Amino acid sequence: MDETSEGQIQGRNLLLATDGKPHSIKAIRYAIEMAVLTSSKLFVVYVVSPKNESEKTELIKEGMAKLVDIKNLALDRGLEVTTLLEGGSPYQTILATAERIKAGAIIVGTSGKTALDRVLIGSVSEYVVRNSGCTVIVVK
User: pLDDT class for 1, splitting at 50, 70, 90?
Assistant: First the structure.
């Protein structure tokens, strides 16, 4: 992290957008560290977008459990943290949440998808980078 990005984010709201999967642990750690270094408030959004109604309850439980784990990690570092469980398309929900909380930066992880996967399925982090009105940090 260079001084320029720290200075631009200093004291601003940071939004960590996560799906809580194992590949996102680096982004979670990065977001917590950045919030500590920049004296920023950390918001964590987990978006539930079930393909059918029958999996909705399970996905909500899973999301809530992941948010509790992340919140505890942040609280252990003395951070002020707000967790948000949202429903809808991850693409639009992440951007709408960033706008709503007036985020200085959005932090996302990559899923490790191949270029072909991104072409066929799309990439949330790629969409957020292209369409965000604020700084986006993609953690690999």
Answer: very low
Is residue 27 within 8 A of residue 139, CB to CB? The reply is: yes
Alpha helices in the chain (DSSP H): 3-9, 25-38, 56-76, 90-100, 115-121, 124-131
Distance CA 72, CA 79 (A): 10
Count Cβ atoms within 10 A of the Cβ of residue 89 and give its class: 0-12 exposed, 13-18 middle, 19 or more buried.
middle
Contact between residue 96 and residue 79 where contact means Cβ atoms under 8 Å apart: no
User: 74 to each of 67, 123, 128, how far by Cα in Å?
Assistant: 10, 26, 23
Per DSSP, 1 falls in state -
Lookup result for tokens 């979670």: 28
Domains within the chain, CATH numbers bracketed: 3-139 (3.40.50.620)
The span from the CA of 60 to the CA of 28, in Å, is 19
Q: Which pLDDT tens digit goes with each residue over 10-45?
A: 668 999 999 888 878 999 999 999 999 999 999 999
- The SS3 assignment for 133 reads coil
Q: What percent of the chain has pLDDT over 90?
A: 65
